[in-house]
Amino acid sequence: MSQKQFVQNASQGFWAYDVALGVFLKHLVDAAEASDQADLPWLSNAVPSWRTVACISDYGLTLDEDWSAAQQRTFIALAEEACERLASRESIPAKEIVAWLLLDDLRIFPRGATEVYTEPVVELGRAVIALISGTLPEPPIGTVWFYGQMKVAGRSGGG
């Protein structure tokens, strides 16, 4: 099981720490399911894939490059809502994370952390927003963007 997942839209993307991506996607799913647009076919088709990516680190997150401008605006609004909810907390205990039922009996694996700090997760969410809105800058030559890397309680490093 990989500790990083690729997030992409069209030909642009970045790497993300799987725990951070899973936590962000859980909040994105919550925002989508509470939305007044939850029954729209494109959104109800996207949510199961977000659940899968959140729980299974072997998958990356591919955002649909064929979404209309209205669909992209809706996604951005949902992602902003997820970031706001995450930013309202300093951290999330691992016990809470492993209690989230996202996909059948699969859950987010916190990789031994006792707590996940939300700041890097919010940064990752903002990178996803920049990616879908086309404002994510190209990484410096010879490098790649990596988001969600975090120091987590109960561990000495994020990777």
Please describe the biggest sheet, giving its number of strands, its sense, and whether it closes into a barrel.
4 strands, mixed
Low-pLDDT stretches: 155-159
Indicate the structural class.
alpha/beta
What's the total number of strands? 6
The ordered string of helix (H) and strand (E) elements is: EEHHEHEHEHE
Beta-strand content: 5-15%
Query: End-to-end span in angstroms?
Result: 13 Å
**Number of discrete helical segments:** 5
| Proportion of residues in helical segments | 40-55%
Structure commentary:
The protein is an alpha/beta fold and 159 residues long. The protein has one domain (4-147). The chain has helices at 18-34, 41-55, 69-87, 94-97, 119-133, and strands at 4-9, 12-17, 61-63, 91-93, 115-117, 146-147. The strands form two sheets. It has a four-stranded mixed sheet. A two-stranded antiparallel sheet has the order 4-5. Strand 1 and strand 2 (12-17) form a beta hairpin. Helix 1 crosses helix 3 (69-87), helix 1 crosses helix 5 and helix 3 (69-87) packs antiparallel against helix 5. It is globular, with a radius of gyration of 15 Å. The model is unreliable at 155-159 (pLDDT under 50).
